[in-house]
Amino acid sequence: MRIVLQRVTTASVEVDGKVVGQIGRGLLALVGVAHEDTDDEARWLADKTAELRIFPDDQGKMNRSLIDVGGSALVVSQFTLLGDCRKGRRPAFTAAGHPDLADRLYLRYADFIADRGIHVQRGVFAADMKVSLVNDGPVTMVIDRTHPTS
């Protein structure tokens, strides 16, 4: 799995002109699922998302987590994160998980975050989504978990 986390002051996702998910301060999580991914990766990444210290403390240092600041998460599936652009001019998506697996693990990731007491909003899997955000900082992190250690 590959996650792109963006610290935001606000973020939303629309499908067919209707807002289906919206948050204030928190993290926008773009989620790509690979064909070998399991619940272990989803849980590890959810824990990392909830506990990563990328919010400022009183001195302006990145010392607070999503849990610490009481922030929300907007979770959006994005298979293009698994695109391979090394050859040619068209990305290859052979590493992306089958839609059934990707949908299940994307939802599991969101559920694991919610299990930590974080308010979670979601996009719509496989829909044509319009994502809007105000990146705070800007702070953007890429977290890749392709090989479980457990």
3D architecture notes:
With 150 residues, the protein is α/β, with parallel strands linked by helices. Helices cover 22% and strands 39% of the residues. The protein has three helices and eight strands; from the N terminus they run βββαββαβαββ. Strands 1, 2, 3, 6, 7 and 8 form a six-stranded mixed sheet that branches. β4 and β5 form a beta hairpin. α1 (39-51) runs parallel beside α3. The longest helix has 16 residues, at 99-114. The relative contact order is 0.31. The mean pLDDT is 95.
Task: Set down the secondary structure blueprint.
Layout: E1 2-15, E2 18-23, E3 26-32, H1 39-51, E4 55-56, E5 62-64, H2 66-69, E6 72-77, H3 99-114, E7 119-122, E8 129-144
Parallel strand pairs: 3-6, 6-7
Antiparallel strand pairs: 1-2, 1-3, 1-8, 4-5
Helix pairs in contact: 1-3
Briefly summarize what is shown.
The chain has 150 residues and is an alpha/beta fold. It has 3 helices and 8 strands; from the N terminus they run E-E-E-H-E-E-H-E-H-E-E. Strand 6, helix 3 and strand 7 form a beta-alpha-beta unit.
Biggest pleated-sheet summary: 6 strands, mixed
State the assembly state of the protein chains.
single chain
Overall geometry comes to globular
How many β-strands, per DSSP? 8
Q: What is the mean pLDDT?
A: 95
From the N-terminal CA to the C-terminal CA, the straight-line distance is 15 Å
Based on secondary structure, the structural category is: alpha/beta
User: Counting H and I runs of at least 4 residues, what is the number of helices?
Assistant: 3
* Order of SSEs: EEEHEEHEHEE
Strand percent estimate: 35-45%
- Regions with pLDDT < 50 over 5+ consecutive residues? none
Overall helicity: 10-25%
